[in-house]
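Predict the assembly for these two chains.
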Amino acid sequence: GDSVTQMEGPVTLSEEAFLTINCTYTATGYPSLFWYVQYPGEGLQLLLKATKADDKGSNKGFEATYRKETTSFHLEKGSVQVSDSAVYFCAKNTGNQFYFGTGTSLTVIP
Amino acid sequence: NAGVTQTPKFQVLKTGQSMTLQCAQDMNHNSMYWYRQDPGMGLRLIYYSASEGTTDKGEVPNGYNVSRLNKREFSLRLESAAPSQTSVYFCASSNPPGTSGNNEQFFGPGTRLTVL
């Protein structure tokens, strides 16, 4: 069935370090792919999205490329900041349903 | 433009009590969703409504009922609360793929429910 698998956390990085959070998805149909971010005590907010193969989504220094050949949508950022500390969710959308990964908690220390 | 709103923000119930969680969106979205979020399990879909007048079960529907009151509002009801329903509940809305604009989901701030 449909699913999204993402790297388990928690992840702890020093400020200005490089971030990668891996995400793979089951290839059912032609899904749109998303990264959401959740700050403590809040709901999920869209971070970036890609709607077709080879699209690159980007926002706030984060990037992810829709790789159909490897069914992946890895999240990257070249230099993380303390304010990036949050939980990150990878998701796919097929038809009316959305499928979320379990979330990866990121803590950035000064 | 408030987006997706949820009430209440916090609730404590005793086992066996009932309650309704309210959700409303002002983005004219067709589809609305209820999720629960538990530690280590991510988001799990309880019910969704693809359009006004329709509802469908998600991954974990047992113990819950929903009502799509109109295009704006989608409520979630716990008829007889159990400790296993202690969770954070999120409502979300979106438009189907192919409609104008984006098809991502927009989330409410959540309801933190504790069942004793």
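Chain A has a mean pLDDT of 93. The longest strand of chain A covers residues 86-94.
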